[in-house]
Design brief:
Layout: H1 11-37, H2 42-48, H3 50-53, H4 59-68, H5 76-100, E1 104-105, E2 108-109, H6 111-115, H7 117-136, H8 140-162, H9 170-196, H10 201-228, H11 231-234, H12 240-243, H13 249-257, H14 263-270, H15 278-286, H16 290-308, H17 315-330
Antiparallel strand pairs: 1-2
Helix pairs in contact: 1-4, 1-5, 4-5, 4-9, 5-7, 5-9, 8-9, 9-10, 9-13, 10-16, 10-17, 13-16, 16-17
């Protein structure tokens, strides 16, 4: 077992050891991920490896492996768990891009734009199947948690698609959507890492709480980036959510404030946003105080994530997780 709390070992050396361990396990995860996405049928392989070859942050596997440093992060089960999580995430991206009619993903042509909607949906299904096969190696409890997580992902998408009830608070509804769609998978990523590394029950519970909170913060920050950055930073067309009619915390806060000077902007947000109108709307949104208000909400969720890991057993893991919270809020793409 790798022990990152060796008595008498200088803190800077422990930090270097932790970084090397995480780097090695991420490389092992990437190798297995590529293998698991592969199909011997050439045209299927082209579709199922399209997004994994486009890159991505691998944020969820990183959380799995960092959580595993609370135990023995070198266990093969940790790598398998990280791949299960990333496969599930990739599969949802194929399906999301079909629903959103997205043309760009990770700075490249989306699968639905390149191969068509039917092929993109089936490619996502293929990756779900591979994730299910791999999670079966991890035991019935892992299969059950994966199924529960998938249910939450679908519920979140349904909640977003249907929208809030007439008498519901749209902002609270939106946060619930983010918790289900994004927080749930990252919570499971963290729990898997700690569990399969043999961490204590207290550490496992703390990491699950951390994962859910940082997941919401991550998505809130991502939505702000969609409004404020250009495509070279984010890998997506700026204002994609506006064009697709997807509500974000910023646009909901603008509508909720209902300022007199915002009436034209609110009207535009409530109706179809066309590519012609997009630059004007982006300019108005970017100068609106709702941007900073939304960022403050994201900061609060990141602080909740930090608080969740206050008492975890490895202070070096804690420091790294705190830095991830800060980076999540401050990233540009």
């Amino acid at each position: 077992m790798v022990n990152l709390n060796q008595a008498g070992m200088p803190a800077d050396l422990i930090a270097i050891e932790l970084e090397q361990l995480v780097t090695e396990q991420l490389a092992a995860t990437e190798k297995l991920l590529q293998q698991t996405c592969h199909s011997d049928i050439e045209f299927i392989n082209e579709m199922t490896t399209h997004l994994v070859n486009a890159g991505g942050k691998r944020f969820r596997p990183l959380i799995t492996i960092l959580a595993a440093t609370l135990g023995d992060a070198t266990k093969i089960e940790v790598v398998k768990a990280a791949v299960v999580i990333e496969l599930t995430h990739l599969a949802t991206l194929y399906h999301d891009d079909v629903m959103d009619e997205a043309a760009l993903r990770r700075g490249t042509e989306s699968a639905n734009a390149r191969f068509g909607n039917a092929a993109a949906i089936l490619s996502g299904d293929f990756l779900f199947a591979r994730a299910s096969e791999l999670v079966a190696d991890l035991g019935p409890d892992a299969v059950r948690l994966q199924a529960q997580t998938f249910e939450r992902l679908v519920a979140g998408q349904l909640l977003e698609t249907v929208g809030p009830a007439v008498d519901a608070d749209p902002v609270a509804h939106h946060i619930m959507v983010l918790t289900e769609k994004t927080g749930s998978l990252i919570a499971t990523a963290a729990q898997f890492g700690a569990e399969f590394a043999g961490a204590s029950a207290a550490d496992i519970a703390a990491m699950r709480e951390f994962g859910e909170a940082i997941g919401v913060a991550f998505q809130l920050a991502d939505d702000i980036i969609d409004l404020t950055s250009d495509s070279s930073d984010s890998g997506k067309t700026p204002g994609t959510d506006l064009l697709e009619g997807v509500p974000t915390l910023t646009t909901l806060l603008i509508q909720q404030a209902n300022r007199k000077e915002d009436q034209e902007l609110i009207y535009q947000l409530k109706n179809e946003v066309t590519p012609k109108l997009l630059p004007e709307i982006l300019t108005s949104v970017r100068s609106h105080p709702a941007i900073s208000q939304a960022k403050n909400v994201a900061i609060n969720w990141a602080e909740r994530a930090k608080q969740a890991t206050t008492n975890i057993s490895n202070p070096h893991t804690k420091a790294t997780l705190d830095s991830i919270c800060d980076a999540t809020i401050n990233r540009q793409g």
